[in-house]
Task: inverse folding
């Protein structure tokens, strides 16, 4: 065996974090929208097996608990499941939007629901937040919970759980969400400028994730959320026509895919799927696309060309079950960033758009 095999295996194990995550109801899909080519693993693709330990509830050192609302709001999960299912059935694109909304929230001041606050100068008004969607889903669920369990369930907890349920609705993994987060009272637009927007280099992405307590593996796995969702053509036109001021397209884009994108993105206001092959299915085809030079955002494609991340891309490309399992693990970690749990930290908002009246 080559030294690259052992390096790849070592990378996977080094960056694996033990968090409780399971997927009891995986679904199989074979939808194709870009072309009809079948994607299969090649001999050089190594299959990796991860042994991920579970995180017992008693080991959560930040006072979060999987059964936090068991007595105070026992109908929480059923309300969440029903509402999310209704919204996704009406608009399946909301699943990706909710994942992105959760990521933006946790990226600034931790997972405190601060992205939901709607006032002048809040994170929600920042330039990086202009295309965020899904606020109405959170508002709908919060309104129902206020009827059933007044002043009990935080907006931060709702957002974390809704993200999980929306992922499951599109065939993604289930993961256990520990509850007990409080809602933050501070939301500042300027602070939202730190959220990655798809133009960064790998070093800055790694540093950003590490600043949040996340690993390189988390970066590669969470980028896999781009297996669903869309991007505005305006955010990628520089890759299509004038990459780095050359007046030419980005040479890392597959020629056939480039032709497709140039026809699709004549106007900046148009939208294009992040995964050109199975855009409505949560699967590992995102990583297959990277190997075929079909990453839509430059940050996507760089994951395959950078030595620090390419081995992980190959592992996730070769093993669909590995991606789904590890996505649940990494999402559980994401939802646990800088949470507010003490009595004097934050509050339980009665309306997710505003802090409570004094």
Result:
């Amino acid at each position: 065996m080559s030294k690259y095999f052992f390096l790849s295996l070592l990378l996977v194990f080094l960056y694996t974090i033990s968090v409780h995550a399971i997927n009891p109801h995986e679904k199989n899909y074979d939808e194709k929208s870009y072309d009809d080519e079948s994607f299969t693993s090649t001999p050089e693709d190594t299959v990796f097996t991860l042994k991920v330990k579970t995180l017992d509830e008693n080991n959560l050192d930040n006072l979060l608990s999987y059964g936090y609302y068991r007595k105070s709001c026992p109908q929480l999960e059923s309300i969440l499941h029903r509402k999310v299912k209704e919204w996704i059935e009406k608009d399946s694109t909301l699943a990706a939007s909710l994942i992105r909304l959760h990521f933006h929230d946790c990226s600034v001041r931790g997972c405190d629901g601060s992205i939901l606050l709607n006032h002048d100068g809040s994170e929600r008004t920042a330039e990086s937040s202009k295309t965020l969607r899904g606020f109405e889903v959170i508002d709908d669920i919060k309104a129902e919970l206020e009827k059933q369990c007044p002043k009990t369930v935080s907006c931060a907890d709702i957002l974390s759980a809704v993200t999980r349920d929306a992922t499951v609705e599109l065939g993604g993994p289930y993961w256990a969400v520990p509850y007990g987060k409080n809602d933050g009272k501070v939301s500042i637009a300027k602070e939202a400028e730190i959220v990655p927007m798809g133009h960064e280099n790998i070093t800055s992405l790694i540093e950003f994730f590490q600043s949040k307590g996340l690993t390189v593996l988390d970066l590669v796995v969470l980028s896999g959320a781009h297996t669903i969702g869309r991007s505005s053509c305006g955010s990628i036109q520089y890759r299509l026509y004038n990459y780095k001021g050359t007046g030419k397209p980005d040479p890392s884009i597959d020629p056939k895919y480039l032709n497709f994108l140039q026809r699709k993105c004549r106007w900046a206001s148009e939208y294009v799927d992040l995964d050109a092959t199975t855009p409505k299915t949560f699967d590992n085809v995102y990583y297959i696309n990277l190997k075929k030079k079909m990453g839509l955002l430059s940050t996507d494609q760089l994951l395959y060309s950078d030595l620090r991340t390419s081995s992980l891309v190959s592992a996730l490309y070769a093993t669909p079950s590995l991606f789904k399992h590890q996505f649940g693990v990494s999402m559980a970690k994401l939802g646990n960033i800088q949470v507010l749990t003490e009595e004097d930290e934050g509050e339980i908002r009665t309306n997710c758009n505003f802090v409570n009246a004094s």
User: Anything to note?
Assistant: The chain is about 40% helix and 0% strand. The first helix runs from residue 3 to 14. Residues 1-12, 14-61 have pLDDT under 50 and may be disordered. The first strand starts at residue 230 and ends at 232.
